[in-house]
């Protein structure tokens, strides 16, 4: 039996240590239906220990000449490639290619995998939570993919105000105070078509904007989907807020790790689960995800029966 995780890390707050243990023990619900490889992807939720013993997550700004989501704030990640054994393999390879995160599994330890998410272009994304145990590591950014790297406390994604995040309060409040009010008030919502996670709807039907946290509700068929937004304090430098899929993954990761519900409503009224939306996209849609299911011979996994189809 190898050394315990806390023996490999700098001093941790009790809350951070409990968070790590919960993530280590976390097992997502078993899903027997197979995902087509052509539409599979993974992201790395890379955690490290800050100076005060709190857990931070690495975030990147995508390069400006990327074909999709240029300049967006994101987690390292990308599509499955031949040779990737599993989602962890995809996440590690992408993190190595984008920010130089070592492939060494002792220096960067896997804590768990999370439930799958669906992107606006119908990719099925598996978040893989990793923690850096070697504090001497230095990032090596790939300029063709990443513009800059920064971090936020993982716990920030449970709160609507930075004052509720002790290790983050002064720093982000100081930064936000230097951002002219018209910059924050006029941050446009990202085009819903890019972030609607395969939902097919683009109408913004409600929302709320705050100095740190806000959300937009997007119409999807007869239902709604909520997209969350967190400011980073770097908006005056051109850094976009954490939004959409990235925000959703970090909210879920923090909720599991800290065993705490956010102080805001995660879902819009009547919002369907991610698996329900994914199932609808495959059974009723005609897009790339449904085509990949057919091409890879996975329809038997997803076809269901007529009663289930009727309920969708």
UniProtKB/TrEMBL annotation:
Pfam families: NUDIX (PF00293)
Protein name as catalogued: Nudix hydrolase domain-containing protein
InterPro entries: CoAse, NUDIX_hydrolase-like_dom_sf, NUDIX_hydrolase_dom
Domain Nudix hydrolase: residue ranges: 38-178
Top-level taxon: Eukaryota
Native source species: Kwoniella shivajii
């Amino acid at each position: 039996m190898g050394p315990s995780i806390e023996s490999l890390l700098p001093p941790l707050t009790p809350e951070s240590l409990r968070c790590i243990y919960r993530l280590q023990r976390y097992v997502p619900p078993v899903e027997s239906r197979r995902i087509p490889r052509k539409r599979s992807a993974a992201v790395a939720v890379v955690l490290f220990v800050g100076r005060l013993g709190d857990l931070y997550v690495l975030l990147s700004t995508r390069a400006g000449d990327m074909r999709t989501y240029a300049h967006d704030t994101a987690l390292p990640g990308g599509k499955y490639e031949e040779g990737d054994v599993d989602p962890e393999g995809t996440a590690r390879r992408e993190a190595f290619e984008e920010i130089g995160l070592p492939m060494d599994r002792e220096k960067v330890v896997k804590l768990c995998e999370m439930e799958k998410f669906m992107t606006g272009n119908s990719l099925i994304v598996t978040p893989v939570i990793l923690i850096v145990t070697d504090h001497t590591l230095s990032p090596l950014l790939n300029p063709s993919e990443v513009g800059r790297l920064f971090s936020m406390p993982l716990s920030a994604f449970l709160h609507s105000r930075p004052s509720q995040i002790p290790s983050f309060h002064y720093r982000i409040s100081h930064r936000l105070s230097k951002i002219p009010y018209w910059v924050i008030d006029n941050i446009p919502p990202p085009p819903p078509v890019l972030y609607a996670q395969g939902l097919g709807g683009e109408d913004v039907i409600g929302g709320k904007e705050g100095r740190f946290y806000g959300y937009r509700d997007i119409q999807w068929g007869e239902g709604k989907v909520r997209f969350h937004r967190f400011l980073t304090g770097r908006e005056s430098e051109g850094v976009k807020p954490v939004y959409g899929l990235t925000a959703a993954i970090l909210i879920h990761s923090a909720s599991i790790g800290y065993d705490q519900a956010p102080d805001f409503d995660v879902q819009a009224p009547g919002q369907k689960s991610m698996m329900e939306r994914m199932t609808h996209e495959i059974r009723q849609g005609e897009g790339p995800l449904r085509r990949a299911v057919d091409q890879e011979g996975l329809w038997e996994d997803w076809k269901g029966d007529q009663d289930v189809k009727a309920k969708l």
